[in-house]
Specification:
heterodimer; A: 296 residues; alpha/beta; Pyruvate Kinase, Chain: A, domain 1; five-stranded mixed sheet; 14% strand; elongated; B: alpha+beta; ATP Synthase, domain 1; eight-stranded mixed sheet; 2 helices
Chain lengths: 296, 140
């Protein structure tokens, strides 16, 4: 049985841990708020970009000689998975759910006889995938997701890297893996096709409500499309990183809240044991004194 | 849309920069500057780095620098998707000069870089140059 001193030491150490976890929870809550605001501020641009792309892409559909970014290379032998996670742990299942999904996807693609390559964003993605799939990694992007504020310029650099690889013919299909933010407690693991791009289907009813205008293009459709497609990739990545950032903070907040509660429970049960033992000791000492006095 | 007004929406990846009704807006199109008045024909245009000017009546009201992007004009108004944008008053001359020098250095340093990399840096220089230019010549 643990001595009184051992118990005291343990209670103190759990108390220290609880202080840390509750501080981390508060920090995550305030960061979550900021990340959420940023994600919301970025939404209009991404939505309008997608709408514009659907417009232009729709106008061009079926024409020969379209950019491979839109229609693909005609093959799907080599898949590039762009895996985005956080830089840090202690955030519940946030990183591990992304990694688990990635592993599953890799196994799936391999069983279909496809070749897989990985591009990782965030330290956790690299660290957790390196042991099993180190030979598949083509690039790692560091120092982007840990920032206080995500910047679009960083996402653009990642997009440029992907485009360079694509131009060199390193892969045929690119998919982005990230956690979509639903609420502080729910994140949805999402696979999003980057290349070839996924055009949103224009809904029937909206078309009926307001007939699609015939656009003029300046310069031509093709020139605009060729500018639009590479930029769209940057925008999609930026959006994914923002969603990821909000998800990470949400997951951390929940994980730290649970940890704080568990620490509290543990302190209670340890204190109970400590007090009982202390009482037993006092009783024992009293008996010793009394029986000693009686013997005299 | 209100009677005879253009709704201008200017968004960058990071935030919405403007969303307002104006009488006219001029945009730096890739094939020359163009103005958008109410009931303009639907148009999708590529933008060069330059200045977006909004007009109230015939007097210029706001000048905003954009580093290139896209403009979509439809029956609802004018939507500008800008890579980066800032009001002219907020550009700091010293930092604009520094950005230009940096961009030029980067371009000079990367002689053996790939084609796309070089193109990217050339664009960066052009953006920085224009940013400084419009500062010197606001009526542009």
């Amino acid at each position: 049985m643990a001595s009184l001193k051992d118990l005291r030491v343990r209670i103190n150490s759990v108390k220290q841990t609880r202080k840390i976890t509750s501080a981390m929870k508060l920090v995550a809550a305030s960061k979550l708020k900021r990340a959420q605001e940023q994600a919301e501020a970025a939404r209009p641009f991404a939505e309008k970009m997608t709408a514009l792309l659907a417009n232009v892409g729709g106008a061009m559909a079926g024409q020969p000689g379209l950019s491979p970014l839109l229609v693909g290379t005609g093959k799907d032998d080599v898949h590039l998975l762009v895996v985005a996670t956080g830089d840090r742990g202690l955030c519940g299942a946030f990183n591990s759910s992304i990694i688990r999904g990635t592993r599953r996807r890799i196994a799936e693609l391999r069983s279909q006889g496809k070749e897989v390559k990985l591009l990782t964003i965030g330290r956790k993605a690299r660290d957790l995938l390196r042991r099993d799939y180190g030979d598949l990694m083509v690039e790692h992007v560091d120092g982007v997701v840990g920032k206080r504020r995500l910047e679009f310029a960083d996402s653009k650099l990642i997009a440029d890297k992907i485009l360079d690889l694509f131009e060199q013919g390193a892969f045929d299909v690119a998919t982005l893996v990230f956690n979509q933010f639903k609420s502080a407690v729910t994140q949805v693991l999402t696979f999003k096709a980057l290349i070839p791009v996924e055009l949103p289907v224009v809904e029937e009813q909206s078309e009926a409500a307001e007939p699609q205008a015939i656009y003029e293009f300046e310069p031509g459709e093709e020139a605009i499309l060729n500018e639009l497609l590479p930029r769209n990739i940057g925008v999609q990545i930026f959006r994914a990183l923002l969603e990821n950032a909000a998800s990470e903070q949400g997951a951390r907040m929940v994980a730290m809240d649970n940890a704080t509660r568990n620490a509290g429970d543990m302190i209670n049960s340890l204190s109970l044991r400590y007090n009982r033992q202390r009482q037993a000791q006092i009783t024992k000492e009293l008996i010793e004194i009394i029986s000693g006095a009686e013997a005299v | 849309m209100a009677e005879n007004k253009v709704i201008l929406e200017l968004v960058s990846p990071e935030r919405v920069l403007a969303s307002e009704e104006v009488d006219m807006v001029t945009l730096p199109g890739a094939e020359g500057e163009f103005g958008v008045l109410p009931e303009h024909a639907p148009l999708v245009a590529l933008l060069n780095p330059g200045i977006i000017t909004t007009f109230e009546g015939t007097t210029p009201k706001k000048r905003i620098f954009v580093a290139g992007g896209f403009a979509e004009v439809n029956e609802r108004g004018c939507i500008v998707l800008a890579e980066a944008a800032e009001p002219l008053e907020e550009i700091d001359r010293a930092s604009a000069e520094r950005a230009l020098a940096d961009a030029r250095d980067d371009l000079a340093d990367t002689k053996d870089a790939g084609e796309t990399e070089r193109q990217r840096l050339e664009t960066a220089v052009k953006v920085a140059e224009t940013r400084l230019e419009v500062l010197d010549n606001p009526s542009h």
